[in-house]
Amino acid sequence: MSSAMLTELTNVRIESAEIDGRMLMTVWMDAAGKPLNTCSTAMLADLEAALEAIERMNPAGLVFASAKARSFNAGADLFEIRRMSDEQVGQYLQRGQALFNRIAALPMPTVAAINGDCLGGGFELALACRYRVAADETSISIGLPEIKLGLIPAWGGTTRLPRLIGLSRALPILLAGKTMPPRKALKGGLINEVVRAEALAAASRRLALHGAAAPKLSLVDRAAARFAAVRRRVFDRARAETLETSHGNYPAPLRLLEVIGIGYERGFGAGLDAERQALLDLVETPAGQNLLRLFFLRQAARKRAGEGLNARPQEVKHAAVIGGGTMGAGIACALIRAGIDVRLVEVSPAAVSAALGRVQKMLDDDVSAGRLDKLAARHVFNRLSPTTEWTGLELADFVVEAVLETMPAKREVFARLDRVVTPGAVLATNTSSLGVSEIAQATLHPERVIGLHFFNPVPKMPLVEVIRGKHSDDVSLATAVALAGKIGKTPVLANDAPGFIVNRVLIPYLAEALVVASQGVPITDIDRAMKQWGMPMGPFELLDEIGLDIAAHVLRELGKQWERPPGVEAAICEASNRKWLGTKTGVGFYLHAGAKPRHRRRPLKLVVNEELSRTLTGGAASGMEPEAIQWRLVLPMVNESARVLEERVVDSPETIDLAMVLGTGLAPFRGGIVKFAEDAGLEQIVDRLEQHSHRCGLRFEPAGLLRRAAAQGRSLSQILQTDREPNAAPQGNEHAAESALPRG
Asked: Sign of the CA dihedral 129, 132, 137, 142?
């Protein structure tokens, strides 16, 4: 076998090889100066030039491969698209469709050799090939996630995938924006083979020369391809399920169904035209713009959190976690998954055994989901070293405390850590409601103490709040920000203040839900109204998930200014006395034990705990319109967000928006709680707060920042920027945080 370089391009190179007397060509994607491949305009241009050479040479087979170590192709370059005009975006989409159509029309077998992430337009390129083979690496993601950005695939994904694997199998993948590791993708029919990484090149050549069997469609999908009546039933069911879960708040899923239907009814070309126009339309919708804004905020989060920190992060090779409960075990698992050796400290052999069981369960879940194979999971687990003694901590570069949420317990841990770890080790507390600065006072080196607040469940929640204490130094904060990124979390930086960001804004919402329910409004009505507004679950479902014991503690710590009617106190006491603590005990505001999904893609049908509900309401019963419930619960979050900004807990409204979406799932299509308020109009927000203040109490009194912004017709960011100007008059704020984030 011999190979020769045929042509040189900036982002693509072409190689040819003769195998058994037949010429095989490989197109290597290698975006110049970038860590991963995308379908940028430069990449599309080079692929077009490569195709011209291939069409002239007419090889026996063609392979598309990547020269990047962990990236096949990540799809459209959204940062480039953001700089385009509407007309340019339309031309860009049309150009990609034409290119992929040319690939699909090539007379020779074509293969996508997937060695790394293959997403969005990258997977649409792979779909244009006749065959797809992937390396057996659980870190690889394959799929079409566009729906999560408020968009739909527009380079043939909506037309090719249903025809490849069948309509009924394709719709759940497309509607959820599912991405999956190679073995799951193989099972789903998205790819033809999975092979060892070192065998990928050989397997791709074999497929190019000898082919593979096409996926077998189910009876339903074969019927759906032929009969309009069957397709209508499949579409009707998908539409009903989509509306049940999204409440019509997201236009992209419904438009996706429409586009796929056009492709079936009017043909492949009409389907391509429909998906291209749909994407152009969806980009202009409020939901599309808000979801894209959140995408860019998340991409920039690590850089933003590190801005103003005049220090480089320390490398973290060894870590320790103190406490192996639900949170501690989750944190330890995240660290060992990232290749960091962890010393786990617990109080007794029984507690160690329970902690190891929790970590093992998380790794087993990763294996079941295809994110790890069994051997890799065993190697990951072996990075964990448990102890009931405080030994081995001198190796730790970073320590996370996750013990009981009481100040004495945490101060005792930090005082002890201060004596046994090295002087350069960072000490982090996972507290959700206690003061980081007060905890740091238990040490001789408060400058290395920071907050690192994870959210439960740790494996699923992407947010980490990095908290600056009164004396925290930049090295410790920079190390925490870098570590959060290393373990796959999105960091946001905040000053030490009660509740930090997420809990501070969320607690008034939960407290008001309890007040509304105590006045007789059924908890099911409240939960339903808030899910219709866009929350992933209602406040009472969330309280059950948090745990009523933890929720009661946080409400007492952070909700001191909030009204607590007798029914609320009675309900909290009864829940505590009877161990009705939510999902972890099977009973809370709802009965969780034995609850089953109504359908595998639909939420659980929960039954209300009538005893606790009666205690909360005191037997009172009243009704409230969904919109009234929504404003009653959302306004406190808006008001508290403004106070967080007034007190300089965070540096910008964007930080609050990102934190609330990632930390609570708050209505992503609304762009965040501050974005929602500004879209609704700050003048209207202040007016509604004043009305509620007259009817419901002074807790609804509008924050000063909101009043000023509404009066001046400016955004909160503009008011804050004015306040930060050197000659700005100081604004009174008796609650100001002790330290402010660096301004820049």
From this structure: positive
The pLDDT assigned to 559 comes to 63
The span from the CA of 162 to the CA of 225, in Å, is: 9
- Can you give the three-state secondary structure of 82-146, one letter per residue? HCCCHHHHHHHHHHHHHHHHHHHHCCCCEEEEECCEEECHHHHHHHHCCEEEEECCCCCCEECCH
Could you read off the pLDDT of 198-252 as tens digits, one per residue? Answer: 999 999 999 999 988 888 899 999 999 999 999 999 999 999 999 999 999 999 9
Asked if 167 contacts 189 with a C-beta cutoff of 8 angstroms, the reply is no
| DSSP of 569-616 | HHHHHHHHHTT--BTTTTBSSEE-TT--BSSTTS-B--EE-HHHHHHH
Angle at 559 between CA 555 and CA 560, to 5 degrees: 115
In 10 A of CB 558, how many CB atoms?
22
Mean pLDDT to the nearest integer, 84-106:
96
Separation between Cα atoms, residue 97 and residue 46, nearest integer Å: 15
What Å distances lie between residue 385 and 343, 356, 457, CA to CA? 5, 10, 22
How far is the first Cα of the chain from the last one, in angstroms, to the nearest whole number? 59
* Tokens 């409440």, located at residue: 247
CA gap 239, 459 in Å, rounded: 30
Adjacent-strand bridge partners of 65: 28
* Amino acid at the residue 664: T
Q: Is the dihedral of CA 355, 357, 359, 365 positive or negative?
A: negative
Active site residues: 453
How far apart, in Å, are the Cα atoms of 244 and each of 248, 288, 517?
Answer: 8, 20, 24
Residue for token digits 């009660």? Answer: 498
Q: Is 579 left (phi over 0), alpha (psi -120 to 50) or beta?
A: left
Where would I find the H helices in 227-348?
228-246, 251-266, 268-283, 286-299, 301-306, 326-337
Of 111, 125, 13, 124, the residue nearest 61 (C-alpha): 111
Tell me how far apart the alpha carbons of residues 103 and 565 are, in angstroms, rounded to a whole number: 67
Decide the pairing of beta strands 12-19 and 3-8.
antiparallel
> Closest Cα to residue 49, out of 33, 29, 67, 34?
29
| Residue-wise pLDDT tens digits, 599-646 | 445 556 789 999 999 999 887 788 899 999 999 999 999 999 999 999
pLDDT attached to residue 563: 66
Q: Please choose, from the candidates 13, 21, 17, 1, the residue with its C-alpha nearest in 3D space to the C-alpha of residue 64.
A: 13
Dump the DSSP string for 452-519.
EEE-SSTTT--EEEEEE-SS--HHHHHHHHHHHHHTTPEEEEEES-TTTTHHHHHHHHHHHHHHHHHT
Could you tell me which of 107, 119, 267 has the C-alpha nearest to residue 190? Answer: 119
CA distance linking residue 474 with residue 479, whole number of Å = 8
DSSP string over 522-556:
-HHHHHHHHHHHT-SS-HHHHHHHH-HHHHHHHHH
